[in-house]
Write a structure and sequence with these properties.
By secondary structure, the protein is α+β, with helices and mostly antiparallel strands. 20% of the residues lie in helices and 28% in strands. The strands form twelve sheets. Strands 3, 4, 5, 6, 7, 8 and 9 form a seven-stranded antiparallel beta sheet that branches. A three-stranded antiparallel beta sheet has the order 10-11-12, covered by helices on one side. Strands 15-16-17 form a three-stranded antiparallel beta sheet, with no helix packed on it. A hairpin with a 5-residue loop joins strand 11 and strand 12. The radius of gyration is 43 Å and the shape is elongated. The relative contact order is 0.05.
């Protein structure tokens, strides 16, 4: 009996030990499971009391505690800058910068920056300099705080002492500062938080007479010198444009050069349009079939015809220029250069083409015949620079009306004056009685004017007509220096003023007025 009891006791001990081992193993594995889960999940989230709007809040509302409520939120879901129960009190009293919906967490960018005074708008190591502006320099009041501008100064080079760029130049313009931020227009200060939400800067008035700029100490000193030396010019720029101007000094000569270049481009564009070509962004000629002709290979002749250096006429599909300067059509026929004209639209036409458009035909002798059978001798027909065709006795056959005054001068309906062979004259004026005057104000009575080989305009006796030229503004042979010298002469010119609303026989009434050059005014005023 003793033996079975011993066996049973041993069995119970073994089962108990097994159960204990199983329990311990379970506890161990559960503990490891929790450790593994904890390692994957990371540290436990803390609950954060976040400030949210208790109701819908409109932009501009002043924040107070009654508008707020707290919301518990796991820390990992809390956005940066959100107001919490620990810090929200220091934001009370600020205005809301945008509309907020009820229940939305409020963050610091949703509230206007609270500056104690304007000096808080200026960054460390920067300075705020206020300068006076007028309606022009304030871009008609459209400039706003936060905009970027360039500043130039218009100054007499004599004030620059030894550093003046060139003797004899009255005024020059220099860049002073570029890409400068406007901190304030009048009393309206720049608010940086508005830029974060792409909102326009505030403006209490459309007019102001000063602006405050964000500059370094050295830039402040430089700008102060510029204010003392000359007149400031402010130029508004795109807020995202960081480019810089590529010039150091500009003068009156550069202004003339720009005008010459503008007229050259106009002629080039007109010729391109007439022939179906285009001008690319680099100024090169691109034909209709895509062929590119370098701008450096393009020449504009004195009469406005666009050609290549090899003699190809770019404004016409059917003409070329030979070594003698005459035009040759596609059939090899030579057309005298005096029988070709450039129209205002840039197209190039010959005398024959104009006469054909006017209803004339040519007979076997080369003379022109109108629809009634009347014959006009070819030698009696003259093509003028304005595109008109007239006879020797002054009758206009085609184109703008041309009349001959008592002295025999050819005058176009636009007031232009031409030589006897039809070339346009520069430097002359016409009064309401069709009298022609030179730059010196003297009446021109000998109108049998011609242009000699040296480019001078001469009367029938061979005398040079002073200060009159046949070359239009913008030709390669008429330099900006020549033009400036011409303007600086003490001459009195006459201009034709159109009186708006008044007419005679259906034509606008005009009156001629004398115009003094700037140099004369300076001398007369003692400057």
């Amino acid at each position: 009996m003793a033996e079975p009891q011993k066996t049973l006791k041993t069995l119970l001990i073994a089962v108990g030990a097994g159960l204990l081992a199983a329990a311990l193993s379970y506890l161990y594995l559960e503990n490891k499971k929790k450790e593994l889960i904890a390692s994957i999940a990371g540290p436990a989230d803390e609950e954060v009391s976040v400030v949210v709007s208790a109701k819908d809040l409109s932009k501009g509302t002043i924040l107070d505690e009654s508008m707020l409520q707290l919301l518990e939120m796991p820390s990992r879901f809390v956005p940066d800058g959100v107001l919490t129960s620990d810090n929200y009190t220091k934001f009370l009293g600020r205005s809301i910068s945008r509309n907020l919906q009820q229940g939305k967490p409020i963050s610091s960018p949703d509230l206007e920056y609270l500056a104690r005074d304007f000096s808080d708008v200026i960054k460390k190591e920067r300075r705020g300099l206020t300068v006076s502006v007028d309606d022009l320099n304030s871009i008609s009041g459209m400039m706003r705080p936060g905009n970027f501008i360039d500043i130039f100064v218009l100054v007499d080079p004599l004030k620059l002492g030894a550093n003046q760029p060139k003797p004899g130049i009255k005024n020059i313009i220099l860049p002073v500062l570029q890409d400068v931020r406007v901190l304030a227009t009048g009393k309206d200060a720049y608010q940086s938080y508005l830029d974060q939400y792409y909102l326009p800067q505030g403006r209490s008035t459309d007019s102001f007479n000063n602006i405050t700029l964000d500059v370094s100490p050295k830039e402040a000193a430089l700008l102060s010198i510029a204010i003392d030396q000359g007149d400031l010019v402010a130029v508004l720029r795109n807020r995202d444009d960081r480019s810089m101007g590529d010039f150091s000094i500009l003068s009156g000569a550069d202004l003339v050069s720009a005008a010459i270049e503008a007229q050259r481009k106009a002629k080039l564009l007109a010729a391109a349009k007439a022939s179906g070509a285009t001008i690319d962004k680099d100024g090169n000629w691109v034909t209709a079939d895509g062929k590119v002709i370098s701008k450096d290979d393009i020449v504009i002749s004195a009469n406005g015809i666009v050609i290549t250096k090899s003699g190809e006429i770019l404004g016409s599909k059917n003409l070329k220029v030979d070594k003698d300067g005459n035009f040759v059509d596609k059939n090899g026929n030579v057309i005298a250069k005096d029988d070709v004209v450039v129209r205002p639209d840039g197209s190039i036409v010959s005398k024959d083409q104009i006469m054909k458009e006017a209803g004339y035909t040519k007979n076997e002798n080369g003379d022109y015949v109108d629809k009634d059978g009347n014959i006009v001798k070819a030698d009696d027909v003259k093509l003028l620079a304005n595109g008109s065709i007239i006879t020797k006795d002054g009758k206009t056959l085609s184109g703008p009306e041309v009349k001959v005054n008592a002295s025999g001068c050819l005058i176009g309906e636009d007031g232009s004056v031409m030589t006897a062979d039809g070339q346009l004259l520069q430097g002359v004026a016409v009064d309401e009685d069709d009298n022609v005057y030179g730059p010196d104000g003297k009446l021109i009575t000998d109108c049998n004017l011609t242009v000699s080989s040296d480019g001078t305009v001469r009367d029938s006796s061979g005398n040079i007509v002073s200060e009159v030229t046949s070359e239009p503004l913008g030709t390669d042979d008429f330099s900006s220096e020549q033009l400036l010298d011409y303007v600086k002469e003490n001459k009195v010119f006459s201009i034709k003023l159109i009186l708006g609303g008044e007419s005679e026989d259906g034509k606008a009434k005009t009156v001629d007025l004398p115009v003094e050059t700037l140099l004369q005014k300076q001398k007369s005023s003692g400057e």
